Structures are given as C-alpha cells and as structure tokens.
Amino acid sequence: MPGIMQQIIQHLVNNRVYLEEEYGREVLKDINSIVDALERLKMELNRDRQFQLFRGNEPDKAEWNAFISELPKLKRTYFRACWLHAECYIYRRIYSFFENSKLLNGYDYFADLKREDLEISERAMNALTLATRGLPKNYEAFSKLMRINLWSNHYEIQLNAFVFSQDENRSKNHHENETTIDVLAQVADLDRNLLIDDSILIWNCLIKSKALCKDDVIVDLICDNGGFEFFTDMLLMEYLIDNGLATKVRLHVKAIPWYISDLTRNDVEWTINFLINHPSEMLSNLGRKWHKLMKDRKILVAPESYFWTGPQSYFVMVDSNLELYKLLSTAKLCIFKGDLNYRKLLGDYIWDSTEEFITCLRGFRPANICAMRTVKCEVVCGLPEGKADQLLKTDPQWMISSAYGLIQYTDALKCGCGLIGGTSTECSIHSIGRNSHCVMRLHKNKGT
To answer: What domain notes does the record hold (predicted)?
Structure first.
C-alpha cells in the first residue's frame, strides 16, 4: 500500500502540467494538499496508527464511521485489523483526499492504467471478437466463453502470442476459420487448473429461467476489473442477450477508484468509445453494437452503490443496504467476478476448503449466485475432500499464485409454492451445515 500511494503521488507530479491545463493554476494547491495527505497516510500505516473517522464530504461517511466505531479498539489499526477492513479503509481514505479537494473531486488516478491495459490488447481483442461472432446457442459455446472470461487476465498473453504466430500467407477465409476454432480450443489448455466448474448449473439456471419467466430475465454482473477483463465480460454479456438467455444485464461498478483496476462508470463509457473509434473495422463494429445494446437498455450500468466499496461482507447487505439487496433479488442470476468479491461473499474467513459454497454465504441469497475468480488468497471453499492437501504438496503457493480458478454456483432455492386449494403458503429457506431444506408453514384461511 505505501508503494501504491507513492505511485499516485508520482502520477500527480508527472501530470502536473496536464492537470494545470485542464483545471487551471489553482489545481496546484489541490495537488500539493493531496500529496501531503498521502504522505501522512503512509506514515500512519507504517506506524500502525488507529483508523481515523471520515469528516469531509464523503457520501458514505456515516456508514464508514459507524463501522469503524463498532470495531473492537484493538482491531482499529492497520496491522491488527483483518486484511479486508484495513485495505478497504486505505483505498477509501485515498479517494477522500480527492473528494474533499476543490477541483479534483471525481478524478480517477488509476484511469491511465486501466486504459493502457486495453490499448495493448489489440491482438487479443481482435482474436476474441473474430472467434465469438455467431456462436451457437449451446452449452459448449457458453462454457468456453465462461472460461475465457475467468482466465482473461492470463488468457490475454496467450492470445497475443497466438495471433502473432499465425501464418500470414494463409487465405483469409482459412485463417478466420482456423482462428475461430483454435482460439476457443486453447481455453481447454487452462482447464487443468480449474478446480471447480459449475458452468453446467449456470447454463441450466438460465435456460430454466427463460422457459419459466414471462417477465424480464435479468442477470446482474458484479464487475471486477476494467481493461481487457471488462472486454471479455462484455463478450459474455453480449452472448447472453443475443441468444435470449437474458433480456437485460445490469453492470454493478465501483462508485470510486478502487483497488487500482476496478471498473467504474467512466471506464465503461471510455471502453465503448475506444472501440467505436478503433481503426480495426471489426472492433469498431463491435463497439457500435455494444453502444446500441446500452442505448436500448439491454445492457446498462446499475445505479451506483457505495456498498461495493465498503468493508462489509455481503451477508450483512440485507441489514445495511436493503435497497441494493432488493435490486439483486429481481435478477435470475448474480455473477460475482474476482477475488475481492469472493472474499466478501465468504466473509473473508478461512473456511474448511471442503465446506459447501451455500453454507459459506451465510444466508446471502438474493438470487441464484455464481462466483468466478482466480485464487489469489487463502479463502476458498467447495473443494473435494483431500484436494487442498494434494495441491499443497505439488504447489505450496497454489492459494496465492492466481494460477487456479473457480466457477461456483448455488441457487436461491426460492420455493414457488403459491396457493394450494384455499391454503395460503409461506415458504422460508434455511441452510443448516451441509444440508438445505425448505420449511413450509401452512396457514388455513381461518386461524393458523
């Protein structure tokens, strides 16, 4: 974190001239003030100081201050707090310096890094765009797209190498056909590290929802990174819309710059414009198609929520942000992307690696849930008996290497009981240990 703060300081110093051109000379006062605040924060971190309450114009300061105040006193310092609380707090404090400045409120100091990630991925984007045009509506195509999306950070490197090595003397049609087949087939090479793959359950969930639902079939994507990863997110969401697996996709993005590469609303707009204006006709056409999907509100950015940049685990959402929970409850499927979302789903606890996913969610079930992440921390669940021990022997760093991935799913188990012969039915779902069961309370018209 001190290194990241130093990078932000260096970014402000390096871009001082450009910022002055955009905001005027008065912005130099803001820059100096923010740099001083970042240096103080670095000192507080290095000396393991107490978390400070937020006292500025932060829209979520009441929630943050309540959370900090409720922490045990010994858990309010950087080294003694759990990782999730400490690191989220630091990122939130960093943005508060900009938020409370006169001219740089709303400035994204990570934007250049996210944009560069997409700009250097031209070959990978061309290959994937070509490979995903006109995919059939079947599980095989869907599962390959899911896996491409999961491995996007690693897959980009392989795609760049693959496209570069193609024989340019091949005929155009032959080259296109072979690229389409081979690019998708390469995903299978990564499957040796896919520890859990519930993609068939996700496919069945979407097929069933489309068949049973007369209203909109909504999919919520709780996004992770911008750049190339968001590009692959959009390929998957486009496939859902094109094939009628979803009638609407809502993108949940971060309200503020977060964890360097996390997606914001501005990143979504920049990505679409970048593609529209790209010299590649194929990418430009893709950008225009995505722009139309967003204009028609088939893919849209959900209302921004500061809950996604809070320190809380997701099982408290129903108490701390009921409106967001209700919004997610209108979806048929919620896809949570990335390692941080996974940690928050599981409360950042080190569960037994064999514990079931549904148990670890501790009642957080607004809708059917899918989690997609590469393993970057010790928080994991749902593995077969003995798998963690086997991995530890063959690869002691397996839990932090990001070389392994998970696609996990659990359904909401919402009972569609309805009215049965003059008896009104209420159904509540309980998850106890490894078993889930539906408890039905039957109430007669007169009395209980």
So the answer is: Subfamily III proteins have a conserved RTxK motif about 40-50 residues from the C-terminus; the threonine may be replaced by serine or cysteine.
- CA neighbor of 335 nearest in space, from 367, 379, 303: 367
Question: 303 with 60: CB under 8 angstroms?
Answer: no
pLDDT at 181: 44
Q: Which of 283, 282, 265 has the alpha carbon at shortest distance from 274?
A: 283
Give residue limits of the domains in the chain. Answer: 2-109, 117-410, 414-448
- ∠ Cα 318 324 329 (to 5°): 80
Local structure of residue 420 (DSSP, 8 states):
B
Domain covering 2-109 in this structure, CATH number = 1.20.930
Quote the pLDDT of residue 211: 83
The distance of Cα 219 from the centroid of its chain, to the nearest Å, equals 13
- In this structure, CATH architecture of domain 117-410: 3-Layer(aba) Sandwich (3.40)
Model confidence, pTM: 0.88
Quote the Cα angle for 416-421-425, to 5°: 40
The Cα-based distances of 146 to 149, 189, 202, 403 in angstroms read 5, 14, 10, 16
**Rounded CA gap, 246 and 208, in Å?**
11
- For the cut 50, the answer to whether the pLDDT of residue 167 exceeds it is no
**Distance in angstroms (rounded) separating the CA atoms of residues 180 and 162:** 12
pLDDT for the residue numbered 419? 28
- Mean pLDDT along residues 198-220: 91
381: tokens are 């669940």
Q: What are the percentages of helix, strand and coil residues in the chain, rounded to 5? A: 50, 15, 35
Please give the Cα distance from 409 to 214 (Å, whole number): 24
Whether pLDDT at 44 is above 80: yes
